[in-house]
């Protein structure tokens, strides 16, 4: 099994020292899904919910969350992000979310992409919860990572 980078030789947590790592172009793509009733999907698409434009609000929340990842996850490094793109595709039973995050830095942007997806889904949930109690968030995962030593 590979050694955990956030645990020292004594088994205590530590922040990874990236000061000697070269800055390279980093990119990560993450995705997730929120399921809901077809009537709720229609209400979102037709902008018929009382909280306003759900999709735009969710996308902005995801972008904001990606930029705040280091504030939310204790051992994440603050990264100056160069690009965040969030796509929300409607499906019959909900929405598929995909986030693309780019930076030129000495550490990857996977956590930022995953955070963007999760918060986008949570915002969709929050804005639709008054009309749909059946919603579920799931399948949040990293699809692709490039840059750095372990990037493909």
Give a verbal description of the structure.
With 152 residues, this protein is an alpha+beta fold. The protein has one domain (24-146): Molybdopterin cofactor biosynthesis C (MoaC) domain (Alpha-Beta Plaits, 2-Layer Sandwich). The chain has 4 helices and 4 strands. A 4-stranded antiparallel β-sheet has the order 2-3-1-4. Helix 2 packs antiparallel against helix 4. It is elongated and about 50 Å long.
Keywords summarizing the entry:
30% strand; four-stranded antiparallel sheet; 152 residues; Alpha-Beta Plaits; alpha+beta
Give a short summary of the structure.
β2 (81-91) and β3 form a beta hairpin. This protein has helices spanning 38-45, 54-67, 69-72, 110-128, and strands at residues 24-35, 81-91, 94-105, 136-146. It is elongated, with a radius of gyration of 17 Å.
Number of β-strand runs: 4
- What level of helicity do the residues show? 25-40%
* Strand/helix succession: EHHHEEHE
Radius of gyration: 17 Å
Spatially, the strands of the biggest sheet line up as 2-3-1-4
Number of domains: 1
Please write the CATH class name: Alpha Beta
CATH architecture: 2-Layer Sandwich
Morphology call: elongated
**Separation, N- and C-terminal Cα atoms:** 20 Å
Structural class: alpha+beta
Write the CATH homologous superfamily.
Molybdopterin cofactor biosynthesis C (MoaC) domain
Strand content: 25-35%
Largest sheet: 4 strands, antiparallel
Question: What's the helix and strand layout?
Answer:
Elements: E1 24-35, H1 38-45, H2 54-67, H3 69-72, E2 81-91, E3 94-105, H4 110-128, E4 136-146
Antiparallel strand pairs: 1-3, 1-4, 2-3
Helix pairs in contact: 2-4
């Amino acid at each position: 099994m590979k050694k955990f980078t956030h645990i020292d030789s004594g088994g205590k947590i530590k922040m990874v020292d990236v000061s000697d790592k070269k800055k390279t172009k980093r990119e990560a793509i993450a995705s997730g899904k929120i399921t809901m009733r077809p009537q709720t999907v229609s209400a979102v698409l037709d902008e018929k919910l009382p909280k306003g434009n759900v999709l735009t609000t969710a996308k902005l929340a995801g972008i904001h969350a990606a930029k705040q990842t280091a504030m939310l996850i204790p051992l994440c490094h603050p990264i100056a992000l160069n690009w965040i793109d969030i796509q929300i595709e409607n499906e019959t039973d909900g929405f598929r979310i995909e986030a693309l995050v780019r930076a030129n830095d000495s550490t990857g942007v996977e956590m930022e992409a995953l955070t963007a997806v999760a918060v986008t889904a949570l915002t969709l949930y929050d804005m639709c919860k008054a009309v749909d109690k059946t919603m579920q968030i799931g399948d949040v995962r990293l699809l692709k990572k490039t840059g750095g030593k372990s990037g493909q």
